[in-house]
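ugh ok fine here u go
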Amino acid sequence: MAQDFRLPDLGEGLPEAELVQWLVGVGDTVTLNQTIAEVETAKAVVELPSPYAGTITALHAEAGDVVAVGSVLISFDVGGSTDAASPAPAAEAPASAPAAATNPPAEASGTDTAKSEPNLVGYGAAPRTGARPQRRARVAGTAVAASDTAVLEAAPHDAIQLGDVVERPVERPRSTPPVRKFAKQLGIDLALVEAGGASGVITRADVEAYAERVGAATAAAPAETAAAEPFDTRELTQPGAAGVRTTRTPIRGVRRMTADAMVRSAFTAPHVTTFLTVDVTATNELIASLKADRALQEHRIGIMAVAAKAVCLALARHPGLNSKWDDEAGEIVEHHYVNLGIAAATGRGLVVPNIRDAQELTLAELADAIGSLAETARAGKTPPADMMGGTFSITNVGVFGVDAGTPIINPGEAGILALGAVRRQPWEHRGEIALRDVMTLALSFDHRLVDGEQGSRFLVEVADILREPGRAMLLR
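structure:
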């Protein structure tokens, strides 16, 4: 019996993913949950387990292809069985892969078959079947201005006009930040746009098609139009090749995600950065003594781990730095836990996985967690879930020999601390000039949430712990 496996929503709400490599070929026999491919989303490289046990009959994409969620990725001959086998226990699945799969999502349609097939377990929301929730909200008819007729004709079938009001679903349309920005520039309400793909995610193409139907396409911003123009693929060649003067690389994956997040943060949260240079000689002496302790030799305790511990202690006393600005709810959300983001530079771009409940960990446990996150990030195996829900972040620019910088806050957080390089230099110590280990700390914070006084007191407290790590014994 032939079965198709469609690229599922990997739990991030993203409309597409890039196929990194196939781990199987046509004619291969695979078992349930065997890893068949690696795909790269905007956040991580994810291993896809097979939802069937059988023989592969066709591969519908090649390495490097960008595949839309819901598109057929691979076909199987399952030997007469029409159903996928039951999922294996989680322990048997690859560590970095999503949970085991059941049946693949069917094409969006109104048929009973499409409605009855369950979503792949662990892959996020199931693709929509075209039906909308029955609950509706009433919106004043003046919101659609003079183009009521055109808007209603272009809108989904369940956006209907009742007298002088328009009814539309309460559910927030699924889309990405760039698409929402594009729709806003055109003055289009995404609630009236129908997603064209099986994933139910509204794409730029869906917005453009809707805009064309209501005559609003000419309102697109020039920059957006220019960005959509194709580039000369002849220049996609190896850097430095003879006779090549320009190399173009498609912007996607982690690089695209990082760029979108940084632009959104820089132009949403009013950034303030404050600097403080501190003598960390005592911290380095503590680290050296811990490394000499046989009981701790398996833990790679360094300045990053000590700084992480200092941040957790200081956040408990300065909760404004551990909060979130919720614009939609009109509230400031103060966290009573610390999901500590650790910025990691990788060959694919910058990622910021976070350590859950970092405030509960000892210094040695923080060091282990930081090392594990960095290793996983460099391998491109960070699970998407590990890069969501952070409350505060640390970045170590000192490893690159940089003294200081102005870090950009991770979206949804109130602050980020940058650690500069540790320099051995003359410094005032106990009334005399001596050679000391000195580093510069740079704290960027969201001025909507944190006043200058709060930010300064937090930074001074972190610096005091690094200057005299024994002070940590006095804090709780």
